[in-house]
Amino acid sequence: MGDCLESNPAKAALEARYLGSSPPEPTNTNPVLNAIWHHKSSRHFLPDPLPSGTLETLISAAQSVSTSSMLQVWSAVAVQDPTRKAAAAKLCGNQGFIEQAPLMLFFCADLNRLANISAWENQPGKALTNMDMFLMATIDTSLAAQNAALAAESMGLGICYVGGARNNAAQLCELLHLPHRTIALFGMAVGVPDPGRLVDIKPRLPLREVLHLETWDDSCQRENVERYNRGLSDFYDWHRLFGRVSWATFVAGLMAEGGLDGRERMRQVLLEKGFGLE
Questions:
Q1: CA-CA distance, 28 to 44, in Å (whole number)?
Q2: Same-domain status, 52 and 179
Q3: Which domain of life is it from (predicted)?
Q4: Which DSSP letter does residue 196 get?
Q5: Which of 143, 170, 195 marks a domain boundary?
Q6: Residue 267's closest CA among 128, 145, 166?
Q7: 181 and 54 in one domain?
Q8: Is the same domain home to 84 and 171?
Q9: Sign of CA dihedral 241, 18, 65, 53
């Protein structure tokens, strides 16, 4: 599968991304689109340090993203110290690649800055208690992180998002010394991918399942999901990962359990950290 990305890299990448369903025809290609279409999560990194200035490049790329009302309600904590990375890895689900990566970024929803500015300006900051402010911070943080991810991959680096940052959110806040009204939403491991452990492009749902023209239409949803079940199963079989349940069975089981490795406590942690959810 990975050997197919040769003569027409963009077309081959899209065929891999939509394995089992009709891929869109790439009508335009450029380095940015190719980087996007070839995205893979990297969980194996070389011990090589990152080139000087990499961190600043990634954060400047993140800051170049759009931001709602120019509020810029996010911040990032860069963790490179091995001891702190090991502690963070333990809190984030004991994922070894976090320790292996030379850089771990924690992207944070940050309303602390606006609270401080409100105090400096002798203003009450009433809007900070609104749930939309937390949503805004979450959206801004996610947009910024994706810019950083794309920048990293364009530089030949690999990344892996870490939702496990929410497994033990309160303890991670303590480890990172996050102030009131600030919380780590997710992490991002960054490093040089191990060429001996590269992965193939993982399939996604059919385009027609997530794209609705003019109005919502889920009349083919079951067909789309079953098609995706088959495509993802073929992907796993190709990689000799036999015995996996279908995607639909997996997500239904995940939703049925209710427990989310500690993330079900997020609402309480948000309230304790001073985020208004009114």
A1: 32
A2: yes
A3: Eukaryota
A4: G
A5: 195
A6: 166
A7: yes
A8: yes
A9: positive
Residue with structure tokens 């170049």?
64
Q: What count of Cα atoms within 13 Å lies in the side-chain half-sphere of residue 202?
A: 8
Answer yes or no: are the C-beta atoms of 147 and 141 closer than 8 Å. Answer: no
pTM recorded for the entire structure: 0.94
Give the number of domains in the chain. Answer: 2
Average pLDDT, the chain: 94
CATH number where 98 lies: 3.40.109.10
163 and 45 housed in the same domain:
yes
Domain assignment present for residue 67? The answer is yes
Domain that residue 244 falls in: 204-265
CA 45 to mean position of chain CA atoms: 18
DSSP code, position 147: H
What is the per-residue pLDDT across 211-229, written as a single tens digit (0 to 9) for each?
A: 999 999 999 999 999 999 9
Whether 234 and 99 map to the same domain: the answer is no
DSSP 41: B
Residue 119 lies in a domain: yes
DSSP H or E stretch at residue 209:
helix 207-210
> What are the tens digits of pLDDT across the range 50-106?
999 999 999 999 999 999 999 999 999 999 999 999 999 999 999 999 999 999 999
pLDDT of residue 6: 53
Lowest mean pLDDT among 7-21, 135-149, 184-198, 218-232: 7-21
